[in-house]
């Protein structure tokens, strides 16, 4: 039993309990920071172990697969756990200044860490029912975070969020039941073998589409995305940053996992649907963003359009396209979480997120302006930032299979992303503040400024590093895509090599 | 709700439901039941009490904040899971203690599985009551 595999899961839970017990004490918030830092170390060692061994497997409670709950980390899982830990660390530092005393007393830090545990669990589990359990852990803790503070629009967004996610959960659970009825197993590796022996392939495709809808809601795919822009602009900025970075990506991860490992029997049908869904997701997301005038609402709609790119990578189902999807996931989480954190600083300095009511940031807060430009340009795909390489790989993959229309869509959506980003730039940064307020960060005291700007700077640096030195990241994505396309190693590691 | 029947009745029902929930918790090892369902049943008792006598009374009867109960449960479940590591087994492997075992008679078997289940019981019990009390107080 390797600790490297279980620590990333156990640490956030321990942190949650400690943070809850210390919630009345100012030390409580530091518990969250220290816990996230330890999680990053644990995730790093899991990454190293995965690079060395290929696939790391652990059987909970010594019950051998496929009977017990299996934890598996292949390269994709390990990458996702590392990026989760990075986001968690950045957000928990930011939360030192962002989360007020009242929310801390209500248990913000505990809920946050339970959410992180749910996300890590979803990335590491090798069992379909266990995946469902982690989705529930995420749903309950994220609902708590969403309505923490209890303002009217938070409850409004929270209800939409939970209702749609419950529908998705029920579909997911029904799919699990049907799949279990057909194959008699829920272990992912075992399923990947068992589905080949199912005689009624038509029924299997139906179940595949059920999973596609269930995860599609979680990932905010067209036409199931509308809960996201309704909810993500309401909670505290730390909360919306971690939601924007991680939650939808768990849905994308689940789609990638299921539609490479289990449902690859009828690619002509299932992946064709995904292809058009991806294109429509990109277009509606970016058009929705163009119509918004609120900092966070624009960003929320852009999450939707960016999810389209990742699904495009999965749907094309070529080695290069999957490289693009994995690379895009990593790039997107870093950039998106960062933009939401910046929106929080902008709101603090100028008093609002409504673009018509703010301004003057360029002159008063030049450092923040630079820090905004990096993720914003990266999101739009400017070379040489991380988003450029992600889009470049994906567009090349579409050209490779001569899907001209899709390549055109991907490029046009990139162009429209620039439109939204320049809108934020022109309104929030360039024009004068309409009420004549000078939004200078000097008004904040030193520790607050450091807690707000450090994580933003850290994530921006990461974006630049991925942008200027993409080679190792692309190589990692290539290795992970190869594992996804040929799951033999995954299957034998789970079923054959139990400790 | 101001109903004298519900108010008096719920006082007795709380006790019965709590007892039944513990029965379900212990029964759960080999038969249908367990910590999750036990916690739900136990919480139902206090929910009924809160409806009958108000959340202030229910909180007073509970003595401990439901959030604290849930977190304590999470802690207990974690400790039960991690305990296996101390014996050199994979996490969440059940560790058994047979009290008074002779030959084929296994005596009284105690295990970390039960401790874990008690943790689950407390998590469910605390979480449900946190939610219901909060909602009752909103209305």
Describe the 3D structure.
- The complex is a heterodimer of chains A (499) and B (139).
- With 499 residues, chain A is mainly alpha-helical.
- Chain A has helices spanning 3-21, 27-53, 75-98, 101-105, 108-124, 128-147, 152-183, 188-194, 201-219, 227-231, 237-261, 267-290, 295-316, 319-350, 361-364, 366-380, 386-400, 404-430, 446-468, 470-485, 488-495; strands spanning 56-59, 70-73.
- The mean pLDDT of chain A is 88.
- Chain B has one domain.
- Chain B contains 5 helices and 2 strands; from the N terminus they run ααααββα.
- The radius of gyration of chain B is 18 Å and the shape is elongated.
- The chains are: A mainly alpha (499), B mainly alpha (139).
- The interface between A and B is medium-sized, with 18 and 17 residues.
Structural class of chain A: mainly alpha
Order of helices and strands of chain B: HHHHEEH
Query: Nearest-angstrom radius of gyration of chain B?
Result: 18 Å
- Give me the side-by-side strand order of the main sheet of chain A: 1-2
Assembly category: heterodimer
Biggest interchain interface, per-side counts: A-B, 18 and 17 residues
Low-confidence stretches of chain A: none
Q: Please, how many domains of chain B?
A: 1
| Overall pLDDT confidence of chain B | 84
The side-by-side strand order for the widest beta sheet of chain B comes to: 1-2
Transmembrane segments (chain B): 12-29, 35-56, 68-88, 108-134
Family (chain B): Belongs to the CPA3 antiporters (TC 2.A.63) subunit B family.
Membrane topology (chain B): Multi-pass membrane protein
Domain Na+/H+ antiporter MnhB subunit-related protein (chain B): 5-130
């Amino acid at each position: 039993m390797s600790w490297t595999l279980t620590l990333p899961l156990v640490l956030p839970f321990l942190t949650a309990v400690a943070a809850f017990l210390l919630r009345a004490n100012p030390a409580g918030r530091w518990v969250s920071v220290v816990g996230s830092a330890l999680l990053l170390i644990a995730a790093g060692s899991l990454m190293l172990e995965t690079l060395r061994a290929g696939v790391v497997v652990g059987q909970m409670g010594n019950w051998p697969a496929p009977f017990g709950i299996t934890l598996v980390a292949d390269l994709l899982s390990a990458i996702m756990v590392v990026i989760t830990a990075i986001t968690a660390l950045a957000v928990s530092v930011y939360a030192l200044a962002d989360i007020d005393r009242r929310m801390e007393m209500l248990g913000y830090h505990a809920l946050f860490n339970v959410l992180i545990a749910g996300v890590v669990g979803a990335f590491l589990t090798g069992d379909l029912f266990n995946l469902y359990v982690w989705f529930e852990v995420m749903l309950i803790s994220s609902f708590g975070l969403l309505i923490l503070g209890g303002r009217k629009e938070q409850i409004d967004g929270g209800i939409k969020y939970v209702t749609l996610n419950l529908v998705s959960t029920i579909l997911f659970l029904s799919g699990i039941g049907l799949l279990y009825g057909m194959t008699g197993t829920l272990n992912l590796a075992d399923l990947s073998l068992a589905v080949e022996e199912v005689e009624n392939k038509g029924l299997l495709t139906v179940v595949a589409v059920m999973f596609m809808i269930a995860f599609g809601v979680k990932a905010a795919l067209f036409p199931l995305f509308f809960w996201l822009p309704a909810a993500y602009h309401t909670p505290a900025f730390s909360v919306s940053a971690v939601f924007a970075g991680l939650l939808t990506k768990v849905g994308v991860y689940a789609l990638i996992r299921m539609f490479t490992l289990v449902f690859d029997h009828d690619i002509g049908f299932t992946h064709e649907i995904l292809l058009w869904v991806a294109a429509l997701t990109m277009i509606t997301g970016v058009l929705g963003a163009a119509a918004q005038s609120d900092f966070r609402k624009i960003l929320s709609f852009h999450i939707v359009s960016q999810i389209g790119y990742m699904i495009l990578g999965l749907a094309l189902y070529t080695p290069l396209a999957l490289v693009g999807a994995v690379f895009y996931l990593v790039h997107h989480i870093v950039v998106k979480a960062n933009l939401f954190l910046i929106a929080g600083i902008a709101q603090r300095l100028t008093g609002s997120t409504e673009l018509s009511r703010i301004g003057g940031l360029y002159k008063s807060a030049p450092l923040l302006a630079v820090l905004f430009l990096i993720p914003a340009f990266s999101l739009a795909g400017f070379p040489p930032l991380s988003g450029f390489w992600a889009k470049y790989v994906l567009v090349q993959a579409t050209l490779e299979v001569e899907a001209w229309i899709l390549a055109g869509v991907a490029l046009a959506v990139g162009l429209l992303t620039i439109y939204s980003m320049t809108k934020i730039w022109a309104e929030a940064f360039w024009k004068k503040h309409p009420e004549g307020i000078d939004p200078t960060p000097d008004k904040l005291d030193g520790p607050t400024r450091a807690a707000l700007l450090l994580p933003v700077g850290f994530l921006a640096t990461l974006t630049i590093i991925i942008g200027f030195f993409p080679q190792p990241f692309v190589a990692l994505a290539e290795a992970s895509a190869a594992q996804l396309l040929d799951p033999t190693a995954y299957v034998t590691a789970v079923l054959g090599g139990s400790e | 709700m101001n109903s004298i029947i519900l108010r008096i009745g719920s006082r007795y029902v709380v006790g019965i439901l709590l007892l039944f929930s513990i029965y379900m918790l212990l029964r759960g090892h080999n038969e249908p039941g367990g910590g999750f369902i036990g916690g739900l049943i136990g919480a139902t008792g206090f929910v009924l009490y809160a409806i009958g006598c108000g959340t202030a009374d229910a909180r007073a009867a509970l003595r401990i904040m439901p959030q604290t109960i849930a977190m304590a449960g999470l802690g207990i479940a974690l400790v039960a899971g991690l305990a296996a590591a101390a014996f050199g087994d994979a996490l969440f492997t059940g560790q058994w203690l047979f009290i008074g075992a002779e030959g084929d008679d296994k005596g009284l078997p105690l295990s970390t599985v039960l401790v874990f289940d008690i943790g689950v019981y407390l998590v469910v019990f605390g979480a449900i009551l946190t939610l219901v009390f909060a909602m009752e107080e909103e209305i």
